[in-house]
């Protein structure tokens, strides 16, 4: 399907069961692989990104059995003195899945095999140099097969030694996540302990919190000092928890919650609630600041429009919700006043340059937009009327999903809607169940 026409919707109301979290799904698959014992993974996300991780792990010789619906049984390769994959040489294609590419780079650097990692052209434009530099500090042998600092990569066996690693924190939290997940694998490092020092600001901290929480579920504890220094004590290794459930995706929840806040509501999302491990749960708090009526349950969140009928503008630091902040940019079209989203420089190294793409598409709808290096300033049309537009999605799933919300103000066309398969293949079907003509 080359494009999808969305008719003008007058309201939004209903209940949506969320797909599993992409970030949790790929972390759990990797942790279950590295653990001692067998893990039953429940409610794994079915998407392109998790498919790339499953394909890669299978190519590495890991035993993964589809046990029904979105459940998988993973037989871990841990429990030996040194963690090694059954297949010691492989070419792995990882698409545009950062949650697979970055952690696998770190894990395979410890695995004493010969591996080549590649992806789609956009993945080869996404930086990985800071992670490679950190791994080289431990003795890893990693070579660039194209431009220095970017995939594709070649990884060779190397002598890994303990020590103190420094890592810049301002590009991607996935670099730190990859290091943390990989460090328990080396016998030398695990025996002596390991420290990672983050240089500068750590962006997207909630994703690192998520990583540490999931590592603890598999028996490995990480200590930190004010999120700048991370210590892994020696002698730890991953052990299966037996069974683990994947939470609903909090980033995906943002589109439906925003629809409720814009289109009247109530719209309820199920699968994520007040106790969520995911940082994007705080998107709901941002909607509250815009005046939306938000209610939390243990495993659900519900959103309604403000009693005044319109949202109000906000000026907000989005470092803690980088993915869900894109939804705020479209919600700003329905707010009174000027909305400013700050600290979003990481958008530029995602599936596309999201800052540039978002600014361009918002202008098509009639907004006045200022694009800075790390911020967007969005002023809706003075008439509060959105213009018809054909929205380009840049092969970016989040561009397609967040701009669907504009149909609550105008008819529009979404180009390349199938890009949502990266994380939410049936998104538009779910969206159509809550919007009313």
Concise description?
With 437 residues, the protein is an alpha/beta fold. It has helices at residues 22-34, 48-59, 98-109, 129-137, 173-182, 187-192, 205-217, 250-263, 283-289, 325-331, 354-364, 397-403, 427-432; strands at 3-6, 11-17, 38-42, 63-68, 71-75, 89-93, 114-118, 141-144, 153-156, 164-168, 194-199, 222-225, 229-232, 243-245, 264-270, 293-296, 300-304, 311-312, 315-317, 335-336, 339-342, 368-371, 375-379, 389-391, 412-415, 435-436.
Please count the helical segments. Answer: 13
Uncertain stretches: none
CATH class of the largest domain, please? Alpha Beta
Mean pLDDT: 94
- CATH T-level fold name of the largest domain: UDP-n-acetylglucosamine1-carboxyvinyl-transferase, Chain
Key phrases:
UDP-n-acetylglucosamine1-carboxyvinyl-transferase, Chain; alpha/beta; 29% helix; 26 strands; 437 residues; 2 domains; 5-stranded mixed β-sheet; single chain
Would you kindly provide a written description of the structure presented here, covering whatever features stand out?
With 437 residues, this protein is α/β, with parallel strands linked by helices. The chain has two domains: 3-19 and 247-436, Enolpyruvate transferase domain (UDP-n-acetylglucosamine1-carboxyvinyl-transferase, Chain, Alpha-beta prism); 22-235, Alpha-beta prism (UDP-n-acetylglucosamine1-carboxyvinyl-transferase, Chain). The protein has 13 helices and 26 strands. The protein has a five-stranded mixed sheet with strand order 16-17-15-2-26. The protein has a four-stranded mixed sheet with strand order 4-5-3-14, covered by helices on one side. Helix 3 (98-109) links the parallel strand 6 (89-93) and strand 7 (114-118). Helix 4 packs parallel to helix 5 (173-182), helix 5 (173-182) runs parallel beside helix 7 (205-217) and helix 10 packs parallel to helix 12 (397-403). The two termini are 23 Å apart. The mean pLDDT is 94.
């Amino acid at each position: 399907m080359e494009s999808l026409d969305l008719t003008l919707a007058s309201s939004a109301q209903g209940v949506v069961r969320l797909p599993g979290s992409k970030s949790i799904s790929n972390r759990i698959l990797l942790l279950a692989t590295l653990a001692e014992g067998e893990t039953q993974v429940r409610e794994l996300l079915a998407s392109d990104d998790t498919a790339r991780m499953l394909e890669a792990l299978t190519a590495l010789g890991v035993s993964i059995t589809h046990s029904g619906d979105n459940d998988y049984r993973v037989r871990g390769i841990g429990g030996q003195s040194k963690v090694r994959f059954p297949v010691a040489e492989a070419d792995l294609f990882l698409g545009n899945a950062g949650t697979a590419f970055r952690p696998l780079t770190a894990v395979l650097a410890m695995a004493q095999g010969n591996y080549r990692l590649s992806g789609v052209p956009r993945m080869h434009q996404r930086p990985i140099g800071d992670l490679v530099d950190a791994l080289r500090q431990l003795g890893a042998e990693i070579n660039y097969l194209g431009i220095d600092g970017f995939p594709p990569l070649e990884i060779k066996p190397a002598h890994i030694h303990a020590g103190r690693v420094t890592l810049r924190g301002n590009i991607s939290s996935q670099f730190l996540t990859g290091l943390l997940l990989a460090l328990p694998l080396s016998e030398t490092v695990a025996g002596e302990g390991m420290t990672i020092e983050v240089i500068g600001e750590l962006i997207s901290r909630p994703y690192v919190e998520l990583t540490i929480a999931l590592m603890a579920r598999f028996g490995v504890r990480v200590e930190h000092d004010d999120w700048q220094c991370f210590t892994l004590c020696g002698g730890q290794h991953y052990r299966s928890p037996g069974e683990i459930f994947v939470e609903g995706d909090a980033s995906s929840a943002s589109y439906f919650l925003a629809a409720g806040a814009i289109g009247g509501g109530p719209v309820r999302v199920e699968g994520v609630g007040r106790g969520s491990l995911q940082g994007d749960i705080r998107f709901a708090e941002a909607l509250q600041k815009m005046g939306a009526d938000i209610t939390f349950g243990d495993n659900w969140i519900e959103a309604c429009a403000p009693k005044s009928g319109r949202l109000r503008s906000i000026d907000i630091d989005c470092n803690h919700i980088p993915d869900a902040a894109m939804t705020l940019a479209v919600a700003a079209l329905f707010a009174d006043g000027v909305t400013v989203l700050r600290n979003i420089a990481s958008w530029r190294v995602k599936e596309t340059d999201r800052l540039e793409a978002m600014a361009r598409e918002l202008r098509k709808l009639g907004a006045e937009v200022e694009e800075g290096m790390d911020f967007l300033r969005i002023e809706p049309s003075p008439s509060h009327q959105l213009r018809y537009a054909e929205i380009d999605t840049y092969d970016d799933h989040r561009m397609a999903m967040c701009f669907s919300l504009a149909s609550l103000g105008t008819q529009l066309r979404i180009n390349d809607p199938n890009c949502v398969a990266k994380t939410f293949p049936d998104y538009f079907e779910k969206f159509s169940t809550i919007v009313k003509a």
